[in-house]
Amino acid sequence: MKYMMFVCTDTEPETDESLVPDINTWVDENDRAGRRVTGNQLVPPSSATTVRVRGGELLLTDGPFAETKEVIVGFDILECADLDEAIEVARTHSMAHAGRIELRPFHQD
């Protein structure tokens, strides 16, 4: 089953950096195991463009639409047997300590 893993900042990160796993090790291990399909960092939210159409009119907003201190800074698409495996993969990501991870399964037809 595929999962979208949103990598997000957090206002209360882990304060002991010695507990934070190395991100390059995480990527290498999950790529080798075939659990990480793809992933990448995102540029800062200030470069975002929000697109909406209302009443047939295109409305564009610079920057993120939501006013929040927590933002998505990257993503990974995981291929895991089930949610338990996806949670285990997310648990070992450095941003689970320095930020937060959100997992969402892809819709199954």
Q: Helix/strand/pairing class, anyone? A: alpha+beta
Mean pLDDT: 91
Q: Which shape, going by the Cα principal axes?
A: globular
Counted by DSSP, the helix tally is 3
Major sheet: 4 strands, antiparallel
How many domains is the backbone divided into? 1
E-strand count: 6
The CATH architecture term is: 2-Layer Sandwich
The top-level CATH class is: Alpha Beta
Q: How far from one another are the termini?
A: 12 Å
The strand line-up of the biggest sheet is 2-5-1-6
Order of helices and strands: EHEEEEHHE
Rg, Cα atoms, Å = 16 Å
CATH topology-level fold name? Alpha-Beta Plaits
How much helix is in the residues? 10-25%
- Ranges where pLDDT stays below 50 over 5 or more residues in a row are none
Give the name of the CATH superfamily.
Dimeric alpha+beta barrel
Beta-strand content estimate? 35-45%
